[in-house]
From TrEMBL:
Name of the featured protein: AIM24 family protein
Record Pfam families: AIM24 (PF01987)
InterPro entries: AIM24, AIM24_sf, Trp_RNA-bd_attenuator-like_dom
Superkingdom to which the source organism belongs: Bacteria
Originating species: Paenibacillus cineris
């Protein structure tokens, strides 16, 4: 598939992305309500209920099957960009459905019901896994980073920053460091196993930007030295 993606960004007017599909190409777009402009034959778009087992059926999630040749533009949530990821063959990564923007023809998407423990840790019941050859697109806040897991040496990743992790990874929800450190951080996934974890760098940037632009030094110091000061001192 020769998919072309053109990104449009402006600090004043937000962001959008334009997709160009050639004749015979097909894309499965998971947020059809974000499409704001379309050029092509009227039958080039066909919406349908997603084939998600059990857990998501009542939410009536809809995907748009887009067929080329056509072009269409989709608006992005504030602060987000689209990261294309090329797949060739099998992938053992589990993705959060909320991060997924599209996947191309040649890719199959399957659901995975999490174990009871991982449901409690991730606050989710279902993840999705891909197979085949093609392109998927994920919505991210900032750049996407990769880190290798180790079977014994844990990797700690901010829970809100994780995009995908290996299906057989071991997860625990925790904090780390001394008492002061553990009181002033989000919960992290403590991860061990084999494979690669994908996480986004921009999730925590908004908090730093707020600290730099809006807070005085005294407030920042008090929030740091008082237990749970980040909760009580705004």
């Amino acid at each position: 598939m020769n998919l072309s993606i053109l990104e449009h960004a402006s600090p004043d007017s937000g962001q959008a992305v334009t997709f160009l599909l050639e004749q015979g190409e097909e894309m499965h777009f998971l947020h059809p309500e974000q499409i704001i402009a379309y050029r092509g034959p009227s039958d080039g778009r066909s919406d349908r209920l997603m084939n998600i087992k059990g857990m998501y059926r009542k939410k009536k999630l809809i995907q748009a099957d887009m067929r080329g040749s056509c072009s269409f533009t989709a608006a992005l949530p504030p602060g987000y960009s689209v990261k294309p990821i090329e797949l060739a063959g099998g992938s053992d990564l589990l993705y959060d459905l909320r991060h997924l923007f599209f996947y191309s023809s040649g890719i199959t998407m399957k659901t995975r019901i999490l174990s009871a423990k991982n449901m409690l840790i991730t606050h989710d019941a279902v993840k999705v896994k891909f197979a085949g050859t093609g392109t998927i697109g994920v919505l991210t806040e900032g750049m996407v980073l990769e880190a290798e897991l180790h079977p014994d040496e844990p990797l700690y990743v901010d829970a809100g920053s994780v995009i995908a992790y290996p299906e057989n990874a071991k997860l625990d929800l925790t904090v780390y460091g001394n008492t002061l450190a553990s009181q002033h951080m989000n919960y992290h996934f403590k991860m061990t196993g084999v494979g690669t974890v994908l996480f986004q760098a921009g999730h925590r940037s908004s908090h730093l930007e707020k600290d730099l632009n809006n807070d005085g030094l005294i407030k920042r110091v008090l929030r740091e030295i008082i237990p749970f000061g980040g909760v009580f001192i705004k």
